[in-house]
Every structure is written in C-alpha cells, then in structure tokens.
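Friendly challenge for the regulars: who can give me the structure tokens for this chain first? No prize, just bragging rights.
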Amino acid sequence: MARFIHLTVVGILLGALLAACGGGGAGGTGGTGGLIMEMGDLYYKPDTLTAKPGQTLQITLDNRGSLEHNFVLYDLDGQTVLFEKDAIQPGQKVNISLKVPEKPGTYEYVCTVPGHKEGGMVGKLIVQP
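First reply, four minutes later:
Bragging rights claimed.
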C-alpha cells in the first residue's frame, strides 16, 4: 500500500512538473496541474511527498473532514517553521505554493490544531536530488 501511494505521489508530482513546463497558465490559482492533498479528521492524504531541492509545489489543501485543520512544515530540526497555512475550515479548499527546501532530508508537516498531531495528523516531505 505504501509503495502504491509513493508511486502515485511521484506520478502526480511528475505531472505537475510537466504542466509547469508547458508555459502559460493561471499562476497556481487554477485547479489543474497540481497536487491535491486531502485533509481529513486526523490525517493527510497523501502523507508522504517526494520532491527535488528548490522545486515549487502547487498544492490544493482540501479539508474533507468535519474539523478545522492547518498545514505547518518544519525544518529538519523539527522546531523551525518553514511554511504555515492556518485555519482551513471543513469543506474549504486552499491553493498554496510551497517552495521545497534546498537541503536534502526528511521534513515533517503537521496539523497544529490541539490534539491533531498527537492523533496522527502528520506527514513527510522527502527532499532528494
């Protein structure tokens, strides 16, 4: 199952990269060419992303749960916030543009709403050349 998810994410990211190279477009505000990250009650789907250093990911955060969620990406130290998107309400979709860190490694993204991280709402961004 994990291999299937990983291959799916790689395919989506490759598609997004090819779409970005196509020229023109809506500057990341349209609903095409990016990754959709489902946010449910205490999960992210996919919960693992793989990207190249410095790459920019276009992600639609889609809160399909019944609770408010957010998206916070931490540096390798696990404490320094690199990116934060607050208060995504149930049923809301928010487009973000995420610049991938330059340093290879495994970064953690979490929902910092009290109890959500502890309930398992965490994911990994794997940065590799």
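Confidence is low (pLDDT under 50) at residues 1-32. The radius of gyration is 14 Å. Your move, everyone else.
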